[in-house]
Hints:
The protein is of the alpha+beta class. The chain has a single domain (2-63), classed as Alpha-Beta Plaits, CATH 3.30.70. It has helices at 14-18, 43-47, 58-63; strands at residues 2-4, 24-27, 30-33, 53-55. It is globular. One iron/sulfur cluster (SF4) binds next to helix 2.
Amino acid sequence: MLEVNCEKCLDCAGCICLCPETALTINLTGLHIDQNACTLCALCVRFCPVQALEITEKKILTNS
Ligand code: SF4
Ligand code: SF4
């Protein structure tokens, strides 16, 4: 699954604009990820200027 480190995230919204699945949204509490929409394409992970996004193994573990 994709995870965001809220302490690193600058709320720049760049990742939201480039996500082809519109899986990312931002509100008063920060960046939110629609895990069902996200395809783990990693575009946002590569884009983020402060490495706030990370793909972890948790999705694989919870699906098994
Ligand atoms: S690109 Fe990085 S810093 Fe910008 S909103 Fe997305 S996660 Fe936060
Ligand atoms: S990994 Fe791809 S599909 Fe998932 S939020 Fe990032 S850009 Fe969107």
